[in-house]
Every structure is written in C-alpha cells, then in structure tokens.
Amino acid sequence: MSEATVTARDAAPPAETPEMELFHARSWLTQYVFCQDAKVIAIQYSGTAVAIGLVALALSWVIRLQLAFPGAFAFINAEVYYQSVTMHGMIMVVYMLTAIFLGGFGNYLVPLMVGARDMVFPFINMLSYWVYLLATLVLAASYFVPGGPTGAGWTLYPPQSILSGTPGHDYGIIMMLASLILFIVGFTMGGLNYVVTVLQARTRGMTLMRMPLTVWGIFAAAVMALLAFPGLFVACVMLLLDRVLGTSFFMPNIVELGEHKNYSGGSPILFQHLFWFFGHPEVYIVALPAFGVVSDLISVHARKNIFGYRMMVWAIIAIGVLSMVVWGHHMYVSGMDPWFGFFFAVTTLAIAVPTALKVYNWVLTLWRADIHFTTPMLFALGFLVTFVNGGITGLYLGNVIVDVPLSATLFVVAHFHMVMGIAPVLVIFGAIYHWFPKITGRMMDEGLGRVHFWITFLGAYAIFFPMHYLGLLGVPRRFYEMGQTAFVPHSAELLNIFITVTALVVGFAQTIFFFNLFRSLKHGALSGGNPWRAASLEWQTPETPPGHGNWGKTLPVVYRWAYAYSVPGAPEDYLPQNAPPIAGEHSQ
Amino acid sequence: MSVMGLFFVFIASMSVLWLWRQGVMSEDWLEEGDVANYSGSARSSPSAAKVGLGVFLAVAGCLFSLLTAAFFMRMASPDWQAPPMSSILWFNTLALVASSATIQTAQFAARRGDRDRIGPWLAASGAFALVFLLGQLWAWRELIDAGAYASGNPANAFFYLLTGAHGLHLIGGLVALARTIRRAWRDRQDAGLATSVELCAIYWHFLLFVWLLLFMMLTGKADALGAICRRVLA
Question: Could you tell me the fold of the domain covering A35-253+266-482+497-540?
C-alpha cells in the first residue's frame, strides 16, 4: 500500500449514523432504571441473571444433599426435590445463561465492538429487559402459589407435567409456562436489536469480515435464538391451552387416579419435537457467544492473531445451521423411526467437524504464542479443556445404540453440565475479569481471581468427572431415591457424598468472586482505557467507562481486523482497529 | 415437518444471500486501510427499521410454520374432525384483501409524495382490518353456538389457536397503523412517514399471505394445493 493512498483514505470523513437519535436521560430514574442505553441495560440484564442464577445454584445444593444423604434432611421431600431439579435446570439454561450471554454481553459489547453509539432500537431494547425481569419474577412467584412450582423436570413433558402426582401440576406449571412465554416475547425484542445492530449500525470500515469473533458468535446465536424460541413458544402456548381450556394438543386418552380424563388423541411426542426444536439450538445459543468470547480472550492474552479467522467465522455459521437439524437426538428413546435416528445421528456427529475446527484453531493460536497467564486467560484455557471433554462424551451420546442404555442416567447429566454448564460459565467468569476494567475503569484483583479460577475449575472436574462413572454404572438421573436398585454398588453412595461435599465447597467459593467484584468496584487498581493492550474497538473509546453515545463526537473509522497483534514494524505489539495504517504495514 | 423444512431452506437462502451482499466472502481482514468497496453512508441499503421488520417477519413466519407443522402432525390422528366452517370466513378474507389493497394504495400515495391521500387510505385499511377481526370473532361465536368448543376436538382447538395467533398479530399491527395514521394527520413535514407507511404495508401483506395459507389449511383446501404443487414438480 503506497503512502499516497494511505493519506487519501485517511482524509475520508468518519461515517455518522444519520437516522439514529440518541436517547437522553432526563432524570435519575431514566438514567439508571428505565434507561435506554445498551450499557445500562446490559448491567441490568447481567445483575438479574446472576441473581436468579444464585437461586438456581442453591437449588442444586438441595438436589445434591438429597442424593448424598437421602432422607437426612426433613425439608427435602420428594416434591421439593423434583421442584428443585426442574427450577434449577430451567433457570440455569434459559433465565441465566441465555440472558447473560445475549442480554448482558450482547448489549454491552455489540455496539462498542462494531463502533455504534447504541443499539438501533433503544426503546425496544429497554422493554426487552423489563419483560425479562417480569418473566423472572413470575417464575420466582411460582414458589408462592398453592402447590408450589412445577416439578415436571425442565423438559416439562406432557402428559405428566399437568397431571396430579407431579408437584405444581395445578398452578406451578401455569406460572412456568406464562413465564416462558414472557421470556420469549422479551427475548425477541432484544434479539431483533442485536441482529439489526450488527447488520446496520457498523461503523465505517467495520465490514463483516473484520468483526471480532465475539460479535460473530453473539450475532449467530441471536439469529438462532430468534428462529428456535418460537418452537418453545408454540409448545408453551399449546400446553397452556391443554391445561387451562382442556384441549388435546398433547394430551392422549388418559386415566388419572381412576378417573377418565376428558382428553383424547393428543400426541406427547409432538410436544417433544417442538420442545427440542428449541432445546437443541439452545445449547449453541449459549455456546456460540462463548466460542466468540474465548477466541478474543485467547488472542488478546496470547498476543497473537486468531488462527484461521475465516474458518472460525464459517464454523460459527455451520454450527448454527447444523444445530437446527439435530434436535431428534434428544428423542432416541421416544420410539422414533430408525431412519430418523440415523439421520439425526449423522447430523449430530457432523457438528463435531466445525467444532473441532474451532478447537484446533484455538490451540494453533496458542502455539508458540506469548501466553500471559492472566485470570481471563486461565478461564479461557479452562473452557477449552472442559469443552473438549464435554464434546467428546457428546459423540458417545449422539450415537443411537450408545445413547439408548445411557439415556436418563447421570452420564447424560455429566455430559451436558460439562459442555453447556461449566464451559460457558468459565467463559462468563473469564469475560467478566477481562471486560471489568472497561465497564468500571478498575482492575479486579489478580490473586483472588486465580484462587477463584483454580477452585472453580478443579472443583467442577471433581464434581462432574465421577458423575460420568456413576452414569456408566447405570445410576439414573432425576430419581429421588434409589430404592431397590441392586445394580448400584455401595461405592456409588460414597462417590455421591464426595460429589455433594465438593459441590458445596465450590458453590461457597464463589463468594471469593463476588468479594473481588464488589471490592474492585471501589478499591481496584485504576486500569486506564486499555489495560490488556487489546486491538478491538471497544478498548479504544475516548472515555473509560464509555460515556453515553460511546464515541464522543465522531464515530471511529476501522482500518483493519480486530487481531493485529505482534505486527512487525508496528510501534507496539498491537495495532488498534481504528489506528490509521502505518507506512509499509503489510498483511499479517 | 416438510413445512418447517421448506421454511428453513427459505430462511437459510435469504440469510446466505444477505451475508453475501454484505461482503462475507471478501478478505477484508487481510487488507489494511479503509475498505475500497465500503458504501459509505447507508443510502443504497435499506433502513434499520426495514431490516428490523424483515427479521421480525422471519420470527413470525417461523412461529406460523411451527403451528402449521403441528397442525399437520396432529391432523394425522384418527380423532380429527374438522368443525363446520362458517361462510363468514369468505367475507373476512375479502375484508383482509381489501385492507391490504387500501394500504398498498396509501403506500403508492406516499411514494408519489401525495400527502393528502395517505391518511384516508390508511384509515380505510384500518377499518377493513377491524371488520376482519370482528368477522373472526363472529366465526368463533358461530362455532361456540354450534357446540364446537376448543376442548371438543383438536381440529376446533387448532381453529381457535391459528385464528387467534393471526388475530393477535393483526392487533399488534393495528397499534402501529394507528400511530402512523396519527402521524399522517398531524405532521405535514414528517419525513419518516413514507417509511412507516411502507413498513405497515409490508406487514399487512405478510399477514394477508399467512391468512390465505391458514384459510386453505382450515377449510381443507391445502391438500388440493399440495396436489397441484406435486403435479407441477412432476
């Protein structure tokens, strides 16, 4: 590139987004509560998600206490146990992980990373959060209705979810379905924003193929969520009608407590199709943003450009597309046509190809890199290992003949906790340690961060590795008591006690994280604008934390991709995306 | 299932086309400096609101495709008994067609810059849409009078569910339409009015299209359509 063209291009004026009027807060209430600034909405989303997530964490202790010490605690009867299992699963998957990745990180990072002033529809964005909060409150309120929350398992399969014998079959299930419907309505408003912001509000020079992978991950996940959540929506509405109006969408001819119910001919399998049509993409709705964030963490903290950028983008898209056609692998035991089973097994195993590509590219990014073992990097590496572990057991379960005996055992529980529980949560922690300086202007404590990482990482393995073994022994999931199961040896009980004690320790150890978080808000070391010397756009804001409108007077102009690290000839070992080209700069 | 398949092939091809046009195949990350083919301002590309509506229609389309798929899967069971179709549905369909036609006229007026005509045509469209909704409620009442309750037969339940979902979408559209009408009457210099009218028109045509498909399904004409498609393909 000659110097003449550089100066000519330099002179190009930065693009303004003409059609967008920024929202301006007029009072304390509109600045901090009913705020339309995506950054404030992000904090609200994350705070709510973490709060309800802590409730779900406490519920997991209830489950674990019962499994390790059956009957030892008077307050854990079968009803409470099943309600805890259900609420733990539903909260963690939908109300915590989905909300924090898309509502939290999506809102905070997407406008900053693509160089926009805000989301394109700020009012709808604000509405999205308030509907989400309402959904969360309705869910929590189900603890206070007669009969308590539903205990149908997070899959809410009819017919049992609305028949007596299942806890909360009278009001709890109605609250749950209403809450999910609200959540989906709220999410659709947010999802529209993330997608349209990425498509329409990118700043000058920020082409699709220069976007950081975090944005790609969130974008693909938002598109998938917009197409997958209608499945859950339809299932919820129809189940609600079955419960309230007595329709027979899903309810077959059935006798309840000796009484012939008025239902006839409905298909519970239809519900399973609709549910898993949402349920499987949901895994990748959580995983794709995590993939994106991890790519950025690894690249920044290894001071090296991401290996195979285009491959990473296409892998995200391929995973997104494939994950829409694999839902049947959750239904191998529902008595499906063997040809369907074959089809779903093939598509499921095919997902391993783009996923493995991503893993190889992460590893190759680390290869001979200048790795800094900062807390975010530790969490990113922890994710890498955990995701590979969880992914490999996924290959087992994707095969019909292996899945049938393992179905509904703790092996499945261990698999999905590794792959979509622990792995994304490690990314969330890493991302918080990484972006905390941008959000607050202060660093979190490194030492406490490392202690937190090692306890969480090793603890998670101590919890879920033995669970694979229990699953192989045939210990079933969701059972309140083992009863007369002669095939479960005594050692399984000891292992269960070990798992429970570890779970309690790891759970309480999270106070280290919260202590660090709140202490650093006030007393953390001042970070400056770009403590990690990162190249992507969100670190180049004129103010830290970014002010209202993000970019001061003019929007930034982007000259290169987000991974210009260790560029030969550059004054520092990174080149910000918006730094004008230096003379003689060449492709990486 | 084939309904969902068709829908997803459509969505996927639209997305790929879109990404292609946005330059997903270029190798920008290897280039330094401003990108040569960057379009600068958003003059040639559609507005954010229009893209937003497009994405929303994809979501709504997904919702209706799933309902349709569920309809056909449930229909296969032996207890399916289609309710008596009231002839008012034909009248309603005409009202919705008229609503779509009038809103299109309003859009033509907006495109010509003929501001005096926009308001009345929009109002006419809204009135036709209200007639459609009242007609749908009338159809519900007739069914209930005939003893065809939602709990009686899955075919009845699907009738209420599909018409209800479609009606709710139309009510949402009417809120947007009412705001557009207010803008058309109030502010002469409103530059964004033409866009609003266009967005309303797109949404109206979409709902008309969905209704025509639903109407065919509910009256049992969908099989005939399927047969024609098969013959054309063969």
Answer: Cytochrome C Oxidase; Chain A (1.20.210)
Between these two residues, A588 and A560, which has the higher pLDDT value? Answer: A560
Which residue in chain A has the smallest CA separation from B11?
A: A227
Q: Are A453 and A406 in contact (CB under 8 A)?
A: no
**Interval A416-456: pLDDT, tens:** 999 999 999 999 999 999 999 999 999 999 999 999 999 99
Q: Do B29 and A310 touch (CB under 8 A)?
A: yes
Instruction: Find the domain containing B167 and state its range.
Output: 84-233
| pLDDT 10s digits, B121-172 | 999 999 999 999 999 999 999 999 988 888 888 889 999 999 999 999 999 9
Cite the DSSP H helix spans in A336-445: 338-366, 375-398, 400-406, 410-417, 423-440
Interface A-B: count of C-beta contacts within 8 A: 157
ipTM metric: 0.90
To which residue do tokens 């659709």 refer? A188
Sign for the CA dihedral angle at A479, A482, A486, A491 comes to positive
- Which residues of chain A have a CB within 8 Å of the CB of B74? 249, 266-267, 270
> Which residue from A431, A433, A453, A450 is spatially nearest to A527, judged by alpha carbons?
A433
Q: Do B41 and A188 touch (CB under 8 A)?
A: no
Q: Is residue B197 part of a domain?
A: yes
Q: Given CB atoms, is B34 within the 8 Å cutoff of chain A?
A: yes
Q: Which of B1, B24, B51, B59 to mutate to test the interface with A (most CBs of A within 10 A)?
A: B59
B24·A273 Cβ contact <8 A: no
* Total domains present in chain B: 1
How far is the alpha carbon of B195 from chain A, nearest alpha carbon, in Å?
A: 12
Residue pair A420/A323 in contact by the 8 Å Cβ criterion: no
Q: What is the CATH number of the domain that holds B142?
A: 1.20.120.80
